[in-house]
């Protein structure tokens, strides 16, 4: 057959029939991060990202977030292509976040995805944001079939894979744990740079006095609105009277929230007979959460997997990875199906790429 | 509708009448591109998302030669402004994308609805 030269200029011998390498570009912008990642057969070639940071005390709203993404997405796209050192022709498919998330930012990014798919004549793959987190976590950590704790500003779910679906075993019945943390950071007027959760984590390290807070686990599910209103009502007074410092409150909140998450994760593990835990999503960066989960895992003889902030926090490469798996399994979609949606259940997606 | 209209129904009836033919506020846009293919690309990117649930605005798209023609109809000026503003942001974004990452390559296959 002679030697074959692949696109990357590598030489292969007569007896090796190389599969063509598959390159996917993924665009993510469902919350306040706009990220574009490029993956080639499980290797991250580029993963630039920009974050829309609001002033202390303020959350981010859809309209302003969309404007941020619109203003930055094309620069991030140029950056991704340059870092990966690939041309559009080498890309096999465009993956983008279909949902869940905020509508205006999702649409802004989807418009760019659809446009480049047409300009470059490439198929388009619509990805579920939560599945992006899960598949990136599996890729980076090598976890085989873990119980997944997916925790972020927008989502809190305990997930296990079963028969072609990522089943939601437990979830929040009101707000996401990250949302609870973000809103508490606003009460304390902590900086949102790089993220409110990060600043709570740093502050919590200096906390010494534990304040007992409402602990709310309901079977397999968790609830956070009670603990948040409890703090909203009392924080000012507790701080003014000097009974507790900001650090004490951050520490107490983390301990309570994370204990709830560890309990529900453990329940799912026991139910599924699982010996692996994967934490993903922005709140998964939190080292105290990883520590507490690690203690529970050790007690059960289970293994804990977690990634660092480049993959825990929303990023484009995770969308590219999920897109890669879907694309290789034969899933692309016709254009009229590429609309975005604020609500998109993790267990609505047929996981065609796993046994 | 002949039945008695209650408070909450009244508003709904009003809007239905607007959308079905009584004068609505309308904006008509014509945006030129380098080719009809580019105009089609922008149209395809923008017409996929349905209107937001609480929106009563309606957009119709048409490509005439290298012009992207869009008509936006809304029950009143306030809603028209909202619809037009967000639409302008997106059409500007799509146009910039075409400028920076185009021109469109030769298509190897038709991008029809029943393929892929």
From TrEMBL, chain A:
GO terms for biological process: tRNA threonylcarbamoyladenosine modification. GO terms for cellular component: cytoplasm; EKC/KEOPS complex; nucleus. Residues 49-320 form the Gcp-like domain. The keyword Transferase applies. It holds the Pfam family TsaD. It catalyses: L-threonylcarbamoyladenylate + adenosine(37) in tRNA = N(6)-L-threonylcarbamoyladenosine(37) in tRNA + AMP + H(+). Coiled coil: none annotated. GO terms for molecular function: metal ion binding; tRNA N(6)-L-threonylcarbamoyladenine synthase activity. It is found in: Cytoplasm; Nucleus. Its main location: cytoplasm. Gene3D superfamilies: 3.30.420.40. PANTHER family: TRNA N6-ADENOSINE THREONYLCARBAMOYLTRANSFERASE (PTHR11735). This is N(6)-L-threonylcarbamoyladenine synthase. It comes from Petrolisthes manimaculis.
Automatic annotation (TrEMBL), chain B:
The keyword Heme does not apply. Keywords: Cytoplasm, Nucleus, tRNA processing. The keyword Cytoplasm applies. It is found in: Cytoplasm; Nucleus. InterPro entries: CTAG/Pcc1 (IPR015419). It comes from the Eukaryota. Pfam families: Pcc1. One of its GO terms (cellular component) is nucleus. One of its GO terms (biological process) is tRNA threonylcarbamoyladenosine metabolic process. Its main location: cytoplasm. Belongs to the CTAG/PCC1 family. Component of the EKC/KEOPS complex that is required for the formation of a threonylcarbamoyl group on adenosine at position 37 (t(6)A37) in tRNAs that read codons beginning with adenine. The complex is probably involved in the transfer of the threonylcarbamoyl moiety of threonylcarbamoyl-AMP (TC-AMP) to the N6 group of A37. LAGE3 functions as a dimerization module for the complex. This is L antigen family member 3. It comes from Petrolisthes manimaculis.
